[in-house]
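Ticket #4471: structure export looks truncated?
Reporter: QA, pipeline team
Priority: medium

Steps to reproduce: submit the single chain below to the structure queue and open the exported record.
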Amino acid sequence: MKKAKIFTLLFSIILSMVLVVGCGNKDDEQTPSGGETQEDTVDDGESTGDADDDLPPLKLSVMLPYGTNEHDEKELTKRFYEAIETYTNTDLEFIFYDQDMYYEKLVLTLAGNDIPSILVTGKSAEFLNAVENDGFWDVTDYIDDYENLSQMSETVRMNASINGRLYGIPRSRDLGRNGFGYRYDWLKNLGLKEPETLDDLYKMLVAFTYDDPDGNGNDDTYGLGVTEYQGTWDIMQTWFGVPNGWGLDENDDLIPAHLTAEYDEALAWFRKIYSEGLVNPDFSTVPGGDWDSALLRSGVAGSTADVVDRFRRNQEYFEGENIPAEHKIIGWIDTGHGPLTLPTDGYADLLAISKAKVKTEEELKRTLQFLNDLSDAEMLDLIEFGFEGVSYYFDEDGYAVYMTEEEMIEADVPLYVFRQGMNQLLNYFMTPENQEKRITTAPPESEIRLAEIAVKEENEKYVVPNYGASFTSETYKKNAEALDKIMADARVEYIKGEIDDVGLQEAKDQWLRSGGQTVIDEMNELYHAAE
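Actual output as written to the record:
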C-alpha cells in the first residue's frame, strides 16, 4: 500500500488551491489551458504514457510539500494514484509534509542517508553540498531527449543550473510576471496620457502626488508606493538597462549590476523622485506584507512596480467592495533603452533525482520519462481536475467546471481531497500538442485578467537574462548576507538622500574589499570555463 500523504481540506478550499503550485509563495499560479474535449481525459487503468510497458513498474519514492496520509485507504485516493501509476508504469510512494514543516524535513533528509528518489528542493547550501558530494543526478545532457522536458527555455535552464549544469527538473513559472500598475481612474481624472516614456511616468507621478487625483480635496496621495521590499527598485532599474544580477561588460566578462553606469543612472532618477516627494517617505519601514492595506487598496499610492497579478487582485478587491477604482497594467517604461523587463527566475525549486535510490543510468532515464509523462495532457488534467463526474463536469460549451461542495454532496461524492499536493510534482513544460489537448475552464472574462495574461506574454519577449544565474561563487556562499546588505542599504540610503555620490562609491568599494572582488573573479572563472 502506498504511503501517500494528502492534505485534508474541504473541497471548496481545494478548488481555490488546486492550481497553486508554488512552495510558500501564494502568488505562484498555474492555469490549465488548451483543448476542450472530454475524450482527452484519462481512462484510469489504461496505460497511454510513453513508459515501456514491457518493463516492470519503476519503484519511486517522492517527497513533496503539503499533506498527510489521512485518506490513503479511501477508494478515490487509491483510484487516483493507480491511474497515475498505470499511465507512467511506476510503483509510487509519496512522502508529503505540510508547507511549514517541509523545508525543515528537507534539511534533515539531505543530511541523512535515506534520500527519496525525487524531492523538491531549492538551491540551498544543503542541496549544493549534496550535489558536490555526488548525491544527485546531473540531468543536463538528458532533458532534450524528452518531448515535454525539452520545451524548457534557455533562460530557465540557465537560472536553475548550478555552475552551468542542471541537477534537477525546474518547476516552470511565468517569466514575464513583473510589471507596472497604476490607477487608470486617477489618470483619466487628471486628463493625462498613458505613460510610455520616462517623461510620461514622471509627469504622472507628479500629478498623482500634487493634483488631487482622487478628488477628495486633500493632499494625501503619492505617485509611487514602495515598501521595504526592494523588488520595486529591481524591476524599475531594469528599464534603465541595469543587468539582471549579473551582466556582461565590454570584455564579455561578468559584472554585477551595481557596478554599471546604468545602475547609477537609475538610482539618480529614483533619488530625484524621492526628493520631490513623489514616493511615500516611509517606504524603507513599510512591511512588504502591508503593501495593499497601507498604500494601494487604501488609495494612498497611485502606482508601483511588482508582479502584475497584484494589480489584478487589487482590482478584483475594488470590484468586490464596490469601490470605483480602475487599474491599468503595463510591462515596462521606455527610458531610452528600449523595452526591458525583469523576469522571475522562471521556476520554483527543482525536482531533484537522488542517486541513493535511482542508482543506474537506465533508472535515471525512466525517472525522467516519468517526469516527462506527468506533463502529458492526460496527467495534467487528472492532477489538476481530478475525475469527471466526481470533481468536475463539462458545461454545454465544453468547458470544465469544478463541482461545488453542494453538488458533490448531492452526487454522494466524498468530501475529501484525493489529489491535493500532487501538483507540486508537476513541472509544466509541455509540447504545443499537449497544451492543445488540455481540458480547460472557461476563459477569463474580466478586462483586468485579460490584461494580466497579455502583459505576461508580451514581457517574455523582453526579459533580461542573468548571465551569472547558474554559477555559484564559493566566497559569495560564505559571505552572501553581508555582501548583499552593503549594497541594499546603500541603495536605500542613496535614494533617501542620506548618502551622496561619494557615499555610494564608498559602499561599492567596501563591497569589493569585503570579498566582492573575489566573487567577481570566481564568477568569471566559472563563466568562462563553461563557454
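Status: closed, not a bug. The export was complete when the record was re-opened. Leaving a note from the reviewer for reference: Residues 1-42 have pLDDT under 50 and may be disordered.
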